[in-house]
Design brief:
This protein is mostly helical. 48% of the residues lie in helices and 5% in strands. The protein contains four helices and two strands, in the order αβααβα. It has a two-stranded parallel ribbon with strand order 1-2. Helix 1 (8-17) packs across helix 2. It binds a DNA duplex (13 and 13 nucleotides) through residues 7-9, 26-28, 31, 36, 38-50, 57, 60-64, 67-71, 74, 77.
Length: 88
Amino acid sequence: MAKDRKTFSEKVYAVVKRIPKGKTLSYMEVARRAGNPKAFRAVGNILNKNYNPDIPCHRVIRSDGSVGGYNRGEEKKKEILKREATLA
DNA sequence: CCCCTGACACTTA
DNA sequence: ATAAGTGCCAGGG
């Protein structure tokens, strides 16, 4: 088995970057793919502090279906989600 | 190493 | 359905 080359945050970025357009993954889904299904907390914390243009963090929402939060504004996030969902 | 923070999730009232 | 409390994990100082 390969070793944990990067930190949890790096894994989270990779997972989020893999999210297809018009698709939304919950924090727990991302945390699950990242390697720690219990780290959904850390996922949000990491995304919030490290907002990368290559990472569509707006596709990461809460398990309830709520958009959760967004560095640019939840309203904006919802708008993007709706737009991608319609176009995708 | 210890303490605090945080875009969450789940349970109970 | 809503509100409050609890448990979880990683990053930063």
